[in-house]
Design a protein that fits this description.
This protein has helices at about 50-65, 105-110, 115-125, 135-145, 145-150, 155-165, 175, 200-205, 225-230, 245-250, 285, 310-320, 330-335, 360-370, 375-405, 420-430, 440-455, 460-470, 480-495, and strands at about 5-10, 15-25, 30-35, 40-45, 45-50, 75, 85, 155, 170, 180-185, 195, 215, 220-225, 240, 260-265, 270-275, 290-295, 300-305, 410-415, 435, 475. α13 crosses α15 (about 375-405). The longest helix has 27 residues, at about 375-405. The protein has two domains: about 5-240, ATPase, nucleotide binding domain (Nucleotidyltransferase, domain 5, 2-Layer Sandwich); about 255-435 and about 475-495, 2-Layer Sandwich (Nucleotidyltransferase, domain 5). The strands form six sheets. A seven-stranded mixed β-sheet has the order 17-18-16-15-19-20-21, with helices on both faces. Strands 3-2-1-6-14-13 form a six-stranded mixed β-sheet, sandwiched between helices. The chain has a two-stranded antiparallel ribbon with strand order 4-5. A hairpin with a 3-residue loop joins β1 and β2. It has 19 helices and 21 strands. The protein is of the alpha/beta class.
Length: about 500
């Protein structure tokens, strides 16, 4: 077949990037054409996303892509849960709140007094986190009710950018499923399984009139609007929904062959789970706080959200503020020679959720829990990486307990797969083979779902074969498992939940 070119725009919590994917029919080759920071903005005690600044970077990506010739499609992925509100005449009513804004801190417990936790989980199957859209909307209702009253449409972040590009207002299935407002367990036979959990919202007094139509991944939204084409001097570019939640796109590109594997999408967040056909909503999945999010082809991403490399990222930002500039590779190299198993942190502890002086918070946590305090940068980084690996083991144990199957292989995809030390720690902690790659998992999944939409790939099985042919995979075998097992018992006692 003729080589086709697709644009993948992946916007993350730390940075965004634009990729060109050249697909020959057998392999995909990625080329980064633009990268930019996605800074949040603090104003009057709240944290917001500067979506117009981000959108200007999206237009820059499209403008740069002009030199690539004919473009067969464009898809956008972002993180989950955050949203923008559109009012009369399609105006954006406010900059979207950042999921790390403190207005939802402790809010879920108050909501459980209105509607039982068990009922919310039974309807949505979603992990309980204060950053979920459900709690964000409830907080907005309490503090800024006029925003909700004026809103005509709620659009999640990738849907918002798709609207800016095409003027089409819809919610893509995988991103809608992250909100804890969508029930994907019902009507599984539909092209887009599920429905909005309207009853939950009505009990909480949250409007439902602004909930958009939900569409499946791979939906053609239209070409880029005429005014943007004129502004950028471009011709038609088709825009597709893809799997708009970044993890959903990453899971699509997991290069797995067998049926006994799990994935770890590793970046700012770590998302560890399995791909299944039906949601798992029962006492165990509730107790372990797993989530059932939508995936490609009506699948379910049964997974656990883990704080991830955010803790290291925020430490690095603090050290930068102190005039200590290190790359992530330099930090990892320093950690490799630090003392092993000095201390552990509960990576999901609420103290690590919000921006701030993260090294100081780690020291305080270790002091408060009667552990040795990491006094320098190498030791701090090692504490973070070892704690992450232990948490992966903890979640893996719970996952196998829920699904009743022993997992043989863990596929690590995303930017975190480049961290060789963490990958080795993970293999040793979970006592399983780890396969790392591809690094640009989200961008790869984005592009190849577009290729399915344009009928250049037949299905998900062929898609994953393309991934295996296109990217190198790095294999890590467990080491020193006895030592890791001994210290895992320490970790469990520390974080016993």
């Amino acid at each position: 077949m003729e080589t086709k070119k697709f644009i993948a725009i992946d916007i993350g919590a730390e940075s965004g990037r634009g990729l060109i994917g050249e697909f020959s029919g057998e392999k995909v080759v990625l080329k980064e054409i633009h990268r930019f920071p996605t800074h949040n903005v603090r104003l009057h005690s709240h944290i917001y996303w500067d979506v117009l600044a981000i959108f200007s970077e999206i237009k820059k990506i499209i403008s740069i892509a002009k030199s690539e010739g004919n473009i067969s499609g464009l898809g956008i992925t972002t993180w989950g849960v955050d949203y923008g509100l559109i009012g009369e005449n399609d105006i954006l009513l406010s900059n979207p709140f950042h999921y790390r804004d403190r207005r939802t801190d402790g809010l879920p417990d108050g909501i459980f007094g209105i509607i039982p936790k068990e009922k919310i989980f039974k309807r949505t199957g979603i992990q309980f986190m204060p950053l979920n859209t459900l709690y964000q909307l409830y907080a907005t209702k309490k503090e800024f009710p006029s925003l909700l009253d004026s809103a005509k449409t709620l659009l999640f972040m990738p849907d918002l950018f798709n609207f800016f590009l095409t003027e089409k207002k819809v919610a893509e299935y995988t991103i809608a499923s992250t909100s804890q407002m969508y029930d994907s367990s019902v009507e599984r036979e539909k092209e887009v399984p599920g429905e909005w959990a309207v009853d939950i919202l009505e009990i909480l007094g949250i409007p439902v009139h602004f909930l958009p139509e939900v569409v499946s991944p791979g939906t053609f939204l239209g070409n880029i609007s005429e005014d943007i084409k004129e502004e950028l001097g471009i011709s038609d570019i088709p825009v597709y929904t893809v799997c708009c939640h970044d993890t959903a796109s990453a899971v699509v590109s997991v290069p797995a062959k067998d049926n006994v594997w799990a994935y770890l999408s590793s970046g700012t967040w770590s998302l560890l789970g399995v791909e299944i056909d039906q949601p798992v909503i029962n006492e165990k999945s509730l107790r372990y706080n797993f989530t059932n999010e939508g995936g490609y082809g009506k699948t379910i991403r049964f997974l656990k959200n883990i704080m991830g490399l955010w803790i290291l990222q925020e430490c690095r930002r603090q050290w930068q503020r102190e005039g200590k500039e290190f790359s992530y590779q330099e930090l990892t190299d320093m950690a490799s020679s630090a003392k092993p198993f000095l201390s552990f942190i509960d990576v999901n502890h609420k103290d690590f959720l919000f921006p701030g002086n993260m090294p100081e918070r780690i020291q305080k946590y270790c002091k408060d829990t009667g552990q040795q305090i990491p006094e320098d940068i190498p030791q701090t980084v090692r504490v973070i990486l070892e704690s992450l690996a232990m948490e992966y083991r903890y979640v893996m144990d719970n996952l196998e307990d829920v699904i009743g199957t022993r997992i043989e292989t863990l596929h690590i995809v995303g930017g975190g797969s480049q961290n060789k030390l963490l990958s080795q720690f993970t293999a040793s902690a979970i006592k399983k083979v780890v396969m790392a790659g591809p690094v640009e998992a989200t961008g790869t999944g984005n592009i190849l779902v577009q290729a399915i939409a344009t009928k250049d790939i037949s299905d998900i099985s062929q898609l994953r074969e393309v991934v295996r042919k296109s990217f190198p995979l790095f294999v890590y075998q467990p080491k020193d498992t006895g030592l890791w097992e001994e210290n895992y018992e320490r970790y469990k006692r520390l974080v016993s939940r």
